[in-house]
Design a protein that fits this description.
261 residues, 7-stranded parallel β-sheet, 13 strands
């Protein structure tokens, strides 16, 4: 697979000669040691990609020429999945964001919950947000995703659950005590969608919002708040999954049942 780099959308122009952004140039020249004539791929984070060739590489500067053909993405998921993730400790949150993007998530909202062990003051929250955005770019570079998922700034759980923040569509919250399973709920939704005629509103079709708690799960009051906001509690089977497993597993299940797997 060719190395991939993110360009600003206005720079992804057929046959253009552009300099890679500073961080990308450093990675290309110092880490990958790409030289003149090396082939690579660039994408704009908005669903387009193109082949390119290195024209010059010197220290931390790398100039490329973009191919004449600009292509639309072939790697975008047919589902629009938003992950509301209770902030996890250490590098677990990085892992969750990375793997969720590889699996096709479109949006991630980190949530500050009652049981979160990570407490973020405004300055630290800003730094973590920037760090998670860099994780998202790196994940897209690796997996071939051309649409850069939106990584929101951390929000309190009750705000994240609200209509002002959450997307339209089916809203689910993982709860090991829920009566219905994720698979049962998704299959029921698919049957319902098939039964509806074309006159019905299509806004929620193919859109899913999945809420996952932190290491110790959601507080009961948070689950009740989510239910009032239209979230349906579902379980992921007979075993209790760690927070870094639950979100990616749920996304993989959605992609298997009604996505691009």
């Amino acid at each position: 697979m060719k190395p991939r780099f993110l360009l600003p959308p206005d720079q992804l122009v057929a046959s253009a000669r552009v300099a890679l952004p500073a961080e990308a140039a450093h990675h290309a020249v110092r880490v990958l040691r790409l030289g003149t004539g090396a082939l690579l791929e660039v994408f704009d984070g908005a669903g387009r990609r193109a082949a390119a060739i290195v024209l010059s590489a010197d220290r931390d500067r790398c100039t490329i020429e973009i191919d004449a053909a600009i292509m639309s993405s072939v790697a975008m998921s047919g589902l629009h999945i938003t992950l509301l993730q209770g902030i996890a400790a250490a590098d677990r949150m990085d892992w969750i964001i990375e793997k969720s993007i590889e699996l096709g998530v479109a949006r991630v909202i980190p949530m500050m919950t009652q049981r979160s062990t990570v407490k973020l003051d405004p300055e630290r929250a800003k730094k973590r947000h920037l760090h998670w955005q860099r994780i998202a770019v790196a994940a897209c570079m690796q997996c071939g995703q051309d649409q850069l998922p939106k990584i929101e700034a951390p929000l309190p759980a009750r705000i994240a659950f609200s209509d002002r923040v959450s997307d339209p569509g089916q809203r689910l919250i993982l709860d090991p005590l829920a009566q219905d399973s994720l698979v049962q709920t998704v299959r029921s939704r698919l049957v319902s969608d098939q039964a509806n005629d074309q006159a019905n509103d299509q806004a929620g079709r193919g859109r899913w919002v999945m809420a996952v708690g932190p290491e110790s799960g959601f507080d009961p009051e948070e689950i009740e708040a989510a239910k009032r906001a239209g979230f349906k509690p579902v379980r992921m089977g007979p075993r209790i999954l760690r927070t870094e497993t639950a979100g990616p597993a749920a996304i993989a299940a959605l992609q298997t049942l009604c996505g691009d797997f």
